[in-house]
Amino acid sequence: MGNPKKFDFTVIGLGAVGSAAFYQLSKSGKSVLGIDRFNPPHEMGSSHGETRITRLAVGEGEDYVALAKRSHEIWKELEAKSGKQIMSTCGGILIDSGEDPWSKHGSEGFWERTVRFAQKQEISHEILTPEEAKDFYPAFNIPEKGKIYREKEAGFLRPELAISTQIQLACSLGAKLQTNCPVLKIEETVGGFCLKTTEGEFWSERILISSGGWVKDFLPSKDRQRFKICRQILHWVKVDPELGDWSQYPVWMWGFGPKPEDFIYGFPSLDGKTVKMATESFLDCGHPDALARTVSLEEQKLFWDTKVKGKIKGLLPEFLKSKVCFYTVTEDARFVVENWNGSSKAQLVSACSGHGFKHSAALGEKLALQLLE
Ligand SMILES: Cc1cc2nc3c(=O)[nH]c(=O)nc-3n(C[C@H](O)[C@H](O)[C@H](O)COP(=O)(O)OP(=O)(O)OC[C@H]3O[C@@H](n4cnc5c(N)ncnc54)[C@H](O)[C@@H]3O)c2cc1C
Predict the structure, then answer these.
(1) What predicted TM-score, i.e. pTM, was given to this entire model?
(2) 141 and 129, same structural domain?
(3) What is the CA(363)–ligand 1 centre distance, in A?
(4) Residue 360 maps to which CATH number?
């Protein structure tokens, strides 16, 4: 029997991307180890909070469309294998208030780009006027100049379920799992890498570093500044039961001003009592360990006053709960995939900047294929 601590492949960090790559690598028949500092899925990284939007016309970049499409295929494959519903295709809308160009995730004119990419990539969609949208979505007070993009195949993913399903499937194919085990240091050795962890040393011929916001821990200090760690708050706002049924809504995104923070998005109500919604923030707190993990009443009130009030009906200014999560943000909001330490046998990935989950299944597959080459 070989050394039980020696593997062909190791995935460091089993969040959205890492769990996907872990599963895809496990199909190769090679020995695969997955290590995480916590016990995924967990609430310390970027992949928790019940739901993530998925949409095919990805305004962040036309080249991401293929990844989103392939991910949809993989989510369906995973559902067929596991019998669990990871993706809900409830449709999605993008509302542009029509006053200032909507800038999002580094893309000016985000609404127009989305429409353009949908047309070019033959993604089924419609454009609605505010008047037409009012019939379908009476909760939104869309200004007269507003415009609405609607995509049938958009919807939401269940991030925790996606991660646990991929980890379970990988383990059922023989991959080994090491949780609550931070990798403290990686040293390149002859023929591979030595991973120093709190549970001793592991050896691996090839590695994938998919450690989310902790990517910085594996980079020299000059490279760490490429990644901002931006605290985000998810709110579960109470529904006004007298004013309509939020369970039939699509996923929705609304850009209402020129700043990236002039933005709100949300989901259909999953429990009939609350709607999960959020805005975005791009203040850098430096490192996930420095993140303030609790949400104050003042923060909830500010969210209501500046993002919801006057724009959205059918909700009460009451919060069931709020949770903290974080984005890992690059300057141009694009993902980072590169060799680590100059070695083609070590890949580093950060599917970041607040739009990575919908791509994670296909990105994991792509990374696995790259490592297997
Ligand atoms: C509030 C919020 C809303 C979002 N909404 C959307 C959305 O609607 N649609 C969308 O597509 N995307 C969305 N995103 C973005 C998406 O969720 C992220 O891009 C994606 O989850 C990032 O996944 P990851 O694998 O890079 O990081 P994570 O999922 O955070 O995984 C990193 C893993 O690495 C582990 N790790 C770290 N350091 C070590 C170490 N030293 N040793 C071992 N393990 C380690 C961590 O414990 C963690 O499990 C949102 C993000 C947030 C925060």
Answers:
(1) 0.98
(2) yes
(3) 13
(4) 3.50.50.60
Strands (E), 83-179: 87-88, 92-96, 125-128, 147-151, 155-157, 176-178
Sign of the CA dihedral running 224, 215, 334, 42: negative
**Residue given tokens 């293929």 in the structure block:** 66
How many domains does the chain contain in total? 2
Question: What residues line ligand 1, using a CB cutoff of 6 Å?
Answer: 12-18, 35-38, 40, 44-47, 49, 52-53, 182-183, 210-212, 214, 217, 232, 234, 278, 325-327, 350-352, 354-358
- Closest approach atom of ligand 1 to CA 359: 11
Residues 149-200: pLDDT tens digits? Answer: 999 999 999 999 999 999 999 999 999 999 999 999 999 999 999 999 999 9
DSSP reduced 3-state for 9: strand
Whether residue 1 is contained in a domain is answered as no
- Which atom of ligand 1 is closest in space to residue 358's alpha carbon? 11
Q: Are residues 256 and 134 in the same domain?
A: yes
CA of 325 to the centre of ligand 1 (A): 9
Looking at the fold, whether 72 and 195 belong to one and the same domain comes out as no
State the pLDDT at residue 260.
Answer: 87
- Name the DSSP class of 342: T
- Kind and range of the H or E run holding 132: helix 130-136
Local confidence band at 339 (pLDDT 50, 70, 90 cut-offs)? very high
Residues 311 and 172 in one domain: no
Residue linked to tokens 């001793």: 200
Phi then psi for 291, rounded to 5 degrees? Answer: -75, 130
Statement to judge: residues 61 and 29 lie in one domain = no
For residue 41, say if its preceding peptide bond is cis, omega within 30 degrees of 0.
Answer: yes
Co-location of 135 and 278 in the same domain: yes
- 231-243 in b/e form (b: 16+ CB < 10 A) is bbbbbbbebeeee
Q: Are residues 175 and 263 in the same domain?
A: no
Domain containing residue 32: 6-48+160-225+334-372
| Strands (DSSP E) found in 190-342 | 192-197, 200-209, 228-239, 251-255, 263-266, 274-278, 315-329, 336-340
